Every structure is written in C-alpha cells, then in structure tokens.
Amino acid sequence: MPNKLHIRRGDTVKVLSGNSKGKKGRVLEVYVNKKRAIVEGVNMVTKHLKPSAANPNGGIEKQEAPIHLSNLMVVDPGTGEGTRIGRKLNKEGKLQRFSKKSGEFIKNE
After folding, report:
1. How confident is the model at residue 102 (pLDDT cuts 50, 70, 90)?
2. Of 1, 52, 95, 103, whose Cβ has the fewest other Cβ atoms within 10 Å?
3. What is the maximal distance between C-alpha atoms in the chain?
4. Cα–Cα dist 24/40, whole Å
5. Mean pLDDT along residues 66-85
6. Alpha-carbon span 45 to 47, nearest angstrom
7. What is the dihedral of CA 16, 23, 79, 11, to 10 degrees?
8. pLDDT of 40-72, one tens digit each?
9. C-alpha angle 65/74/109, rounded to 5°?
10. Distance, CA of 39 to CA of 21 (rounded, Å)
C-alpha cells in the first residue's frame, strides 16, 4: 500500500526546483504510484497532435506534464508561502493536515 502523500488534488503548491522554479499553481491530478502530480500552468511541454476526425489539421499544443512530488511544497493558506505539512486531530477528533509554519489547518477543497 502506498504511503500518505503531503499533496492532494486542489492544493495550491509552489515549485521548488526545475524549469518552473518559484511558480505557484493548483494541483489538478496526483499519480500516487508514480509520486507525481500535474500542476496548473507548471512544467509545460509541447505536444504534437496527429490529424484526426475531431482535429483534422492536427497541430502543436502546450500542456502540463507531471512533476515529481519532491519538487512541490504546499502553500500556507494564511501567509501564501511554502510550508511543511503535519497531521493532527481537530476538534471533532478527525486527523487533519495542518501547516507547520502557522499551525493553521489546511482545508480540503
């Protein structure tokens, strides 16, 4: 069984390294087994499309490529800066993620 990840779909993340270093974006999809995520507007690649019935001319399209989770950091909702993530019990006794920088709980969108 795969480990729990610090990033979930809908989180706002900051890129720590690579060509898109410093950019922020929303996580669109997480590939748990590959430990990668697709982030909106980050790690853009050029994809060549063959002509098809839906797209008779084909063409060149820019799209997001997966980026490794080790290169991403969750953005603290209060300060807008990157933060590490912890898990602790909330008032209802449910385990919830929180920002280690500010201590705020991170809401699941």
Report:
1. confident
2. 1
3. 57
4. 8
5. 92
6. 6
7. -90
8. 999 999 999 999 998 899 899 999 999 999 999
9. 85
10. 12
Can you tell me which residue has the tokens 């480990």?
Answer: 3
| Of 58, 101, 53, nearest in space to 76 by CA | 101
Look at residues 16, 26, 24 and name the one whose alpha carbon lies nearest to residue 68: 16
Judged by DSSP in three states, 59 sits in strand
Are 106 and 97 contacting, i.e. CB atoms less than 8 angstroms apart? Answer: yes
Q: What is the mean pLDDT of residues 63-92?
A: 92
Instruction: Give 103's contacts (C-beta < 8 A, 6+ positions apart).
Output: none
- pLDDT for 63 equals 94
For residue 33, pLDDT over 80 is answered with yes
- Walk me through the domains of the chain, giving residue ranges and CATH numbers: 12-77 (2.30.30.30)
Residue 88 burial by Cβ neighbours in a 10 Å radius (0-12, 13-18, 19+): exposed
- The pLDDT of residue 27 is above 60: yes
